[in-house]
From TrEMBL:
It comes from Nocardioides zeae. This is Aldo/keto reductase. Belongs to the shaker potassium channel beta subunit family. Keywords: NADP, Oxidoreductase. PANTHER family: HYPERKINETIC, ISOFORM M. Gene3D superfamilies: NADP-dependent oxidoreductase domain. Residues 15-317 form the NADP-dependent oxidoreductase domain. One of its GO terms (cellular component) is cytosol.
Length: 338
């Protein structure tokens, strides 16, 4: 495993982060989830990312239980706040980034994770209905009370990041990270988010580097969907992957196979190594429904792809890459969830 600084901070994190979205507490049994976490540790992964909303809090509970007994100082545990969590019906203040929800959110996350603090506390989305000053003040309270060391954001536009960074500087709290979707097929952060973040000392912790599994090459145009794959998961996975399932995209992905073979990499390792070539990327988040899946993912750590390989990737995917920076703004909710 290789390690990188998170943005310009002093915090070092593993190049591969283990994330448990869509798995822990929902898709896989707890004993399998625990085995995945332990395999991640065995492979040198020290950084773990979750969110309060994943499986309505169960993902945090499973991760906390799986990490119990590990030396806390040797781990970097990240979580997020924004979406509603808890029993139904949800209350009117159970969503967003108000002072009330942020303060209650961190306490709930710490309880479920079984820890006194998280290393990184992230705004899961931008809240257009709460003054940014209120949100950043609440995050300052979290940091100053010792419940989080650093703060970050997820799926914020460059303009939103810049405004938050200005307030964070005034409040003397470390805004060090951005967590966007990023892959060979989804490059929308490259135009504005990455340059702004690099200027401000903010690092990317990217999710879905394998484009929901499409970049593994297992989805072949005209062939039945692999049994048990995300594209067959009607609980939510099939919806998330749909944007990448057009035949022209799947055909282009098949053209990546000889590139991976020439480099001695699997398709998943090539996809993860590709996002790690971006100097502003601090870590790539990977998940697993089986422990052995992580063995392949970690092979991307420390890999430097030659320029000719990067050019071959661009040529293979020409015409199927999404790169419009305006699409980042679509992640900001247009109305209250509750």
């Amino acid at each position: 495993m290789e390690f990188r600084h998170l943005g310009s901070s002093g915090l070092q994190i593993s190049e591969i982060t283990y994330g448990n979205w869509l798995t822990h507490g929902s898709q896989v049994e707890n004993d399998v989830a625990t085995a995945c976490v332990h395999r991640a540790l065995d492979l040198g992964i020290t950084t773990f990312d979750t969110a309060d909303v994943y499986a309505n809090g169960k993902a945090e509970e499973v991760l906390g239980a799986a990490l119990k007994g590990q030396r806390r100082e040797s781990l970097e545990i990240f979580t997020k706040v924004y979406w509603p969590v808890g029993p139904d019906p949800k209350g009117k203040n159970d969503t967003g980034l108000s002072r009330k929800h942020v303060r209650e959110g961190i306490d709930g996350s710490l309880r479920r994770l079984g820890t006194d603090y998280v290393d990184l506390y992230q705004a899961h989305r931008y809240d257009a209905f709460t003054p940014l000053e209120e949100t950043m003040s609440a995050f300052a309270d979290v940091v100053h009370s010792g419940k989080a060391h650093y703060i970050g954001v997820s799926e914020w536009t460059a303009e939103q990041i810049r405004a938050a960074h200005e307030l964070a500087t005034e409040l003397r709290i470390p805004l060090v990270s951005s967590q966007p979707q990023y892959s060979m097929l989804w490059r929308i952060i490259e135009g504005e988010v990455v340059p702004t973040s690099a200027e401000l000392g903010i690092g990317q912790i990217v999710w879905s580097p394998m484009a929901q599994g499409v970049l593994s090459g297992k989805y072949v145009p005209g062939q039945p969907l692999p049994e048990g794959s995300r594209a067959t998961d009607q609980a939510g996975g099939a919806t998330m992957i749909q944007r990448f399932m057009a035949d022209d995209t799947l055909s282009a992905v098949q053209d990546l196979k000889p590139i991976a073979e020439d480099l001695g990499l699997s398709m998943p390792a090539l996809a993860i190594a590709w996002v790690l070539q971006n100097d502003n990327v601090s870590s790539a988040i990977v998940g697993a429904s089986r422990p052995d899946q992580l063995d392949d993912s970690v092979k991307a750590a420390g890999v430097r792809l030659p320029e000719d390989a990067l050019a071959r990737v661009d040529a293979a995917l020409e015409g199927v890459v999404t790169s419009d920076p305006a699409l980042v703004a679509e992640s900001t909710p247009k109305q209250r969830v509750v």
